[in-house]
Structure to design on (334 residues):
């Protein structure tokens, strides 16, 4: 059974960046305003996330890494709700099947923090002969989750990965998206032992500050603010796109649907096409776009490694988004 769980977990968590995305979404669900990430060897040796969210009750710690025992999966209806990020209740379980997990957590009401170790979904004693029960320890409100030696027990998965630096780039990509989108939340990401953070945003900064912080000053001067409600199409859009003066070698497309980082290839293609009449050949725009669509019209693939999203009336909405963008671009360049 353990081996089957491990293989299934390797499907859910294919690389360090998937694991981190799940952990970040949990921190966001827990209402955190400060999320700090520490990484070693591209997340293969160590992936650590510290938040200041609600914390986990001591009594929940023994089952928290078992599949589908999550507090968020209360009703079947919740499967269709994307107001919270997590709704499958298998992220922590999966991670604990392919890594050594340590959780230190404290709720507001608890008099102290608790620390627990996990292997294969179950509490594990820190040393032979000791009790596996969570131990009281010092700590502030919030949760720290550490995943060490990712895929230590799944050689095939480990071999399929790119170099630690490539895996780290994927981690930075995930953190970048959430750090830009969630203004009001402070994010940091660094390599373990390093004095400098590779990504840092402050809780008091807005979207443009965050974009400047991560992508530099030049881009922040060429941004056009997007904000409109399309009642006829039942969606809202907001974000920032670059004007025709700015271009990069690679398109940067940060898409959020209902506050989840997702991909939508048809939309991406349409935007590339739109900008092709504005930008020199071979150059690309920066797009940060947040769409709010009636959750009932969105088909979120429940597979965590597939971020591709489909929604109702997709073609019409994509056309409408491009029309709006075209107007914004034309006004900015007029
Ligand atoms: P899901 O998010 O789908 O509920 P997960 O396996 O991702 O399932 O998480 C299991 C449960 O652990 C969550 O429902 C939540 O109650 C708790 N949890 C996980 N991470 C945190 C965190 N950072 N802060 C507070 N609670 C957390
Ligand atoms: Mg989750």
């Amino acid at each position: 059974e353990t081996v089957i769980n491990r293989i299934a977990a390797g499907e859910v968590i294919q690389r360090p960046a998937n694991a981190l995305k799940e952990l970040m979404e949990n921190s966001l669900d827990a209402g955190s305003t400060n999320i700090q990430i520490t990484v070693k060897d591209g997340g293969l040796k160590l992936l650590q996330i510290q938040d200041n969210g609600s914390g986990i009750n001591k009594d929940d710690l023994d089952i928290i890494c078992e599949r589908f025992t999550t507090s968020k999966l209360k009703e079947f209806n919740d499967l269709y709700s994307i107001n919270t990020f997590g709704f499958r209740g298998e992220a922590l379980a999966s991670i604990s099947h392919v890594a050594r997990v340590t959780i230190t957590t404290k709720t507001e009401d608890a008099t102290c923090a608790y620390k627990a170790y996990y292997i294969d979904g179950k509490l594990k004693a820190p040393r032979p002969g000791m009790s596996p029960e969570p131990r009281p320890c010092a700590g502030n409100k919030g949760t720290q989750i550490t995943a060490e030696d990712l895929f230590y027990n799944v050689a095939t998965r480990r071999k399929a990965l790119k170099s630690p630096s490539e895996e780290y780039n994927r981690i930075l990509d995930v953190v970048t998206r959430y750090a830009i989108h969630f203004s009001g939340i402070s994010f940091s990401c660094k390599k373990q032992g390093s004095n400098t953070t590779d990504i840092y945003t402050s809780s008091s900064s807005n979207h443009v500050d965050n974009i400047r912080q991560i992508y530099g000053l030049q881009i922040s001067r060429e941004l056009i603010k997007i904000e409109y409600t399309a009642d006829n199409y039942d969606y809202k859009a907001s974000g920032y796109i670059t004007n025709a003066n700015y271009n990069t070698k690679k398109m940067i497309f940060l898409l959020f649907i209902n506050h989840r980082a997702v991909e939508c290839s048809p939309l991406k293609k349409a935007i590339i096409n739109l900008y092709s009449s504005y930008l020199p050949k071979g150059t690309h725009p920066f797009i940060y776009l947040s769409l709010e669509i009636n959750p009932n019209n969105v088909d979120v693939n429940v597979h965590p490694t597939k971020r591709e999203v489909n929604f109702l009336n997709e073609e019409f909405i994509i056309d409408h988004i491009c029309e709006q963008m075209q107007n914004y671009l034309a006004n900015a360049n007029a």
Notes: The chain is about 30% helix and 25% strand. Confidence is low (pLDDT under 50) at residues 73-84.
